[in-house]
Design goal:
- This protein has one domain: Nucleotidyltransferases  domain 2 (Four Helix Bundle (Hemerythrin (Met), subunit A)).
- Helices cover about 65% and strands about 0% of the residues.
- It is built from 8 helices and no strands.
- The protein is globular, with a radius of gyration of 17 Å.
């Protein structure tokens, strides 16, 4: 059976510019698309960092680690965030922002109410992102909650992508070392 060439896209993370374009496109598709898919990109990136950090796992062990439907240890976004923080993969600000992104994503995904970024409670959550003062100092006007969410998502993605590059390089350098 021939494998689809497009499956390669499931493993490769978008470049920083591609992510900027993706976020702009998501915003044009609505609030729910922005919240749900932005968080999915961040979750996928965290998983890629873990996979670069871990020894190579066989398919069964990988599923037991990451497959949420099978009760994997790191099968949820929240679990990935908490473990990443516990092992010092991310700092406190990034940790808090990721937990907030996860909470907002869950509201969009599971609420029985019509949810938008303009809803007063979602807007309040978006105003809590730790990166916002830095954006204001750079002169960025982020008054719209969806813009706050998107910019924090982008900066978090860029930071995590850099960590992935570092982990991948370190793993490549360790390949010659014995696997303890």
């Amino acid at each position: 059976m021939a494998r689809a060439a497009s499956k390669k896209l499931l493993k490769e993370l978008p470049t920083e510019q591609e992510m900027r374009d993706i976020l702009a496109d998501l915003k044009s598709q609505g609030d729910a698309a922005t919240a749900l898919l932005s968080a999915a990109y961040l979750e996928h990136t965290l998983e890629a960092i873990f996979k670069a950090l871990f020894r190579n796992l066989n398919s069964e062990d990988s599923d037991r680690m990451f497959d949420g439907s099978a009760g994997g240890i790191l099968g949820t976004f929240a679990a990935k965030i908490r473990v990443a923080y516990a092992i010092r993969m991310i700092g406190e600000k990034q940790y808090n922002d990721l937990l907030l992104i996860n909470d907002i994503r869950n509201v969009f995904g599971h609420s029985l109410h019509k949810v938008t970024f303009d809803h007063e409670l979602v807007a309040l959550d978006c105003s809590k992102f730790s990166g916002l003062p830095d954006f204001r100092e750079m002169g960025l006007q982020l008054s719209m909650p969806i813009d706050q969410f998107s910019h924090v998502t982008l900066t978090t993605y860029i930071l995590m992508r850099q960590k992935l590059r570092n982990q991948t390089l370190a793993k490549h350098l360790r390949r010659g070392a014995p696997d303890a």
